[in-house]
Amino acid sequence: MKIIEYLKKIYLYLKTNKTVVVLLMMFVFLYLINQDIFYNKIGKNLKSNNAAILKLKGEMNRLKNTTGSLSNEKNALLNLETQISDLKSQLKNEEVMLPKTFEIADFIKDISVSRPANNFIIEKIIFGKPTKYKKNITALPVNISIVGGFNKSITFIKNIDIMKRIFVIDYVSIKVSKKSFPDIKSNIKGFVFSMNR
Description:
Number of strands: 5
Number of domains: 2
Shape: rod-shaped
Strand content: 15-25%
Oligomer: single chain
Radius of gyration: 47 Å
Distance between the termini: 125 Å
Helix content: 55-70%
């Protein structure tokens, strides 16, 4: 009961005292404005935070993709490294298999065996001056002139390229043979190697 009476007194006091009511209403109004500003600030902060989070997520995804591609490149480089070391060891084995001399007679015999059976001529084989290729390998320039049909010439070049003896073809020139048309005349330049021991 006392509370109800107390409330009635406050009501009567506010009814007769309008200045206090106005002041209270101003306080309420200021409170509501402050609340609105506060909530707007929070909303803006949340929006900017969400935008920052989305941006960070995008950056993280980009970094993941970059890391993945870098990992792939690293693996590719490691594979290349392995291939290079395999090729180096293979080269060492090949170098050990090089003959002590150029063995010209055997080389000419191998070239003769490589030629097609008929309608094909090895006109000449010219050897140049040996030159130092590496510290323990000497290279001998070789110039081979052939006359024959196009297909037979290609077969001959393939055969000497896969000979047991290493013969590196450096240059091939082709022109029409004046003596036996439609045959072609080819000039093959290359090198054979020997080991200095």
